[in-house]
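Hypothesis: this fold can be encoded by more than one sequence.
Test: take the structure tokens below, design a sequence, compare later.
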């Protein structure tokens, strides 16, 4: 994914700088295609990392994200069309998983020993984005695309108090944050008729959220593998 991202950014910058082509007029100029809308279902695989959660442990807390089911919608508004289509890509998505995100650390008991614990959590992520895209035709029935741009993400983390024993007491068991970041997406679509497509894709999101009342400042980043359905209105 690290090798793919520079290409996606270049595609987004190209899309943002292209001058829109006018719609059909009395001179017979070809009209732009209508917007394409895509819905997707997939699995978000966030990178594991470490955080700071003083109520669990004075040192680093291991953050083990499980796979988060997610869904969303993308739009593609054409600004230039030819062998490739170039334009704007607004969209949004969410991912959520309950009681399966592990934050493991340790705490010191009465004898001075460090005991390891695991805390069940739920994590909700929702984002909106606006970038540029490039879509090209590989054959009469197959197209591929790339897109990238900035995004705004909201995150909510909630810890399950009942998943630990009485030796650990949470003053705060939930926290939320909003921050900007970036997204990238790429995929391939297979036409099932003149206006509709089924496809496969991969998305990538990256930002930093500060769950200051629970696990602290952590990176939210990783790929999302999706199945897609697209249609032109």
């Amino acid at each position: 994914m690290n090798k793919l991202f520079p290409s996606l950014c270049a595609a987004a910058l190209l899309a943002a700088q292209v001058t829109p082509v006018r719609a059909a007029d009395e001179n017979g100029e070809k009209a732009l295609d209508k917007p394409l809308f895509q819905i997707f279902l997939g699995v978000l695989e966030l990178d594991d990392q470490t955080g700071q959660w003083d109520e669990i442990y004075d040192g680093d807390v291991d953050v083990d994200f499980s796979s988060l089911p997610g869904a969303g919608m993308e739009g593609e508004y054409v600004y230039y069309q030819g062998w490739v289509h170039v334009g704007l890509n607004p969209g949004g998505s969410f991912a959520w998983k309950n009681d399966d995100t592990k934050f493991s650390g340790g705490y010191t008991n009465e004898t001075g020993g460090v005991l390891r614990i695991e805390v069940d959590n739920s994590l909700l992520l929702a984002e909106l984005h606006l970038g540029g895209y490039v879509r090209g035709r590989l054959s009469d029935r197959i197209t591929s695309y790339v897109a990238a741009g900035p995004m705004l993400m909201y995150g909510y983390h909630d810890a399950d108090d009942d998943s630990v024993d009485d030796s650990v007491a949470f003053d705060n068991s939930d926290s939320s944050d909003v921050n900007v970041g970036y997204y990238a997406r790429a995929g391939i679509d297979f036409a099932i008729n003149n206006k509709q497509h089924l496809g496969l894709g991969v998305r990538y999101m990256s930002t930093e959220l500060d769950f200051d009342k629970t696990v602290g400042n952590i990176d939210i980043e990783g790929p999302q593998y999706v199945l897609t359905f697209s249609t032109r209105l």
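The domain at 4-17+35-232 is CATH 2.40.160.20 (Porin). The chain has one domain: 4-17+35-232.
Hypothesis status: open.
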